[in-house]
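FW: tagging you since you asked about this chain on Friday. Here's the raw sequence from the shared folder, copied in full. Didn't touch anything.
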Amino acid sequence: MTVILDHAPATYPGPPKLDREQLRRAQQDTLDTPRMKYSLLAKMMFKPVDVLYGEQGSFTKFAMLEIIARVPYQAWERMGYWAVHRFRTRSELARRVHERIVEARSDQDNEQFHLLIMEDLIDRQGLRRNWLLHRAAPWLIAFFYYHVSWALFLVHPKASYRLNAEFEDHAEHSYMTFVAENPDLDFVPDPGTYAAEYGRYRSVADLLRQIGHDERVHKLDSLETMREPRIR
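HL: got it, structure written out here
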């Protein structure tokens, strides 16, 4: 049973919220689980991010990843609306497509809060933003990922979901590894800026563990959807 910690989000529940012990177990599970075997397309996205932001995790790098993470859900939502219009006279099929749209929008909202949280942590650290790392690079990589996700979904939906699962797996491991490498974060209080929407945690470490767990849920959802990528 999932135990909600301290302050439950009222508007955007997203994936299950875990208590402190569950978060620590989730982190260890991630660290004990090998990463997925990433495709060439996935590596083409990860490599520029590592070059620009460094191979080690950081709030700035995570903000970049969260900008990109929203993209496939936006692409699937767009394709879903097109499908609803096409199949609007087939009520049951249109309803199932709309359910996928709702799921994509919920996941997109969850990733959006990850981004807002990262940007808040960047502000609190007093880190400077520059045009290349915070505007140009995120836009270019997100633009590439959006069109790849859209095109793959059109011709081979299973590949589009697989690519997202790889990206979410990468994000999950990145967050959990970062927390393991920075034990001092367990003593930094969660500022709770988005507690009303996302929940409040005892520390920034637990906040990041929750985000990492969210990414795992997104990954598992994409892997599950791969079993029936086309809605019939």
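FW: The radius of gyration is 18 Å.
HL: agreed, and The chain has a mean pLDDT of 89.
FW: great, closing this out.
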